[in-house]
Amino acid sequence: MRHSRGIATGAALAATALTLTALPSIAGAVTSSPTDTPAKTSAETTLTAEALRAAEEMPAGALKAMQRDFGITAEQARERVASEYRAGKIAPVLAKDLADSYAGAWTTGDTSTLVVATTDPAQAPAITETGARAKVVEHTLAELEAVKAGLDRAAEKNSTTAAPVWYVDVKTNSVVVHASDTAKARAFAEAAGAGSDLVRVVKSAEKPRPLYDLRGGDAYYINGSGRCSVGFAVTKGSQQGFVTAGHCGRTGSSTTGYNRAAQGTFQGSSFPGNDYAWVATNSNWTATPYVKGSGGANVTVAGSTQATVGASICRSGSTTGWHCGTIQQHNTSVTYPEGTITGVTRTSVCAEPGDSGGSYISGNQAQGVTSGGSGNCRTGGTTYHQPVNEILSAYGLTLKR
């Protein structure tokens, strides 16, 4: 169904959106006087043009995602973005002019109609004249934010799991608290001095947790001490994790991430003979198809086709970052003090301690994980990587891409 208020009627909507006489500062921002029609028309035209441009310049990925997630057409998505752009420009001006009576603003409906709340009924006609919908409520935004700030302070003093989420909800003109145990949540709110007329407790099974990305080249720590680097994010059925060097940890060793947050456990490890391992991570971590590249920019992994001898190859590690060189030989055997490993690839890329396990990538194709070598990244060196396809095959893993 085509929307009746959108880009097709953008000029008409903008023409009413900033025609305000009851609130002088908005009128002043648009026109020098209530009868200065040319200046007002110019401002309205500018706003309409900006809204249309914002809609037309939407990234293709965002446009596609809106169509998918909202179940709308591309035209309807652009209409919505244009309306929301105008709302975003108008709402702050209304907030300033309503001052102490302002109680928040939001958009609603398929056409993203702007709704502005106020505690002063006398301001409703002026809000309506802007093209927004007025809603008269009991509490100002400042009152609600003061209550939330009280809950914040209470949580800082005594951390609580009784109420995992709370926020100012301008739509219901209240502070909403989510909790599985509503009685404990109410007790928490009362202890913080939040009146029951301002706080609404909602029963919820929500259990927020931090979310971290698995990215090749980032650091991780083994058993709380030694440091290595993530190779590539992988999946095994519904389990997520990453591949790395076997000498970094033994099966059963625990890991924490670059941020020292609990991360996972080594599910398998082989060294010497081979130098590979994989770590299964907990639900706080999400596998991504990325390797940390030059300057921290992400390089997207598209596959794991092995590059030929002589091809360029780059390595990402938590000690020395991003360095490149060439593939010198495949199927190399190298002996470390701990024993000999076979089937690794020899490269001219430098590496240093802590880079172990990190990603080797040629173009957008994953190649392997850093094993060891000689030299350093100041004077140059030779390093070896364990081919990634062997690791995937050994443990039945799928490369995240």
Commentary on this structure:
The protein has 3 domains: 7-99; 141-203, GMP Synthetase, Chain A, domain 3 (2-Layer Sandwich), CATH 3.30.300.50; 210-401, Thrombin, subunit H (Beta Barrel). Helices cover 28% and strands 36% of the residues. The protein has helices spanning 10-17, 24-30, 37-56, 60-70, 74-98, 124-129, 141-157, 182-191, 388-395; strands at 102-108, 113-118, 133-136, 165-169, 174-179, 199-203, 212-216, 219-222, 226-229, 232-236, 239-244, 254-256, 262-270, 276-281, 285-292, 298-300, 312-317, 321-336, 339-347, 359-362, 365-376, 380-387, 398-399. The strands form 5 sheets. The chain has an 8-stranded antiparallel beta sheet, with helices on one face. A 6-stranded antiparallel barrel has the order 17-18-19-22-21-20. A hairpin with a 3-residue loop joins β8 and β9 (226-229).
Which structural class do the helices and strands define? alpha+beta
Shape category: elongated
CATH class of the largest domain: Mainly Beta
User: What is the CATH architecture descriptor of the largest domain?
Assistant: Beta Barrel
Rg estimate, integer Å: 29 Å
Helix content: 25-40%
Q: Return the domain count.
A: 3
Q: How confident overall, as mean pLDDT? A: 86
Q: Give the terminus-to-terminus CA distance.
A: 37 Å
- The total count of helices amounts to 9
Predict the CATH topology of the largest domain.
Answer: Thrombin, subunit H
Query: How many strand units?
Result: 23
> Major sheet: size, sense and barrel closure?
8 strands, antiparallel
CATH homologous superfamily assignment of the largest domain: Trypsin-like serine proteases
Q: Which strand order spans the largest sheet, edge to edge or round the barrel?
A: 9-8-12-13-14-11-10-23
Percent range for β-strand residues: 35-45%
Low-confidence parts lasting 5 or more residues at pLDDT below 50? 1-39
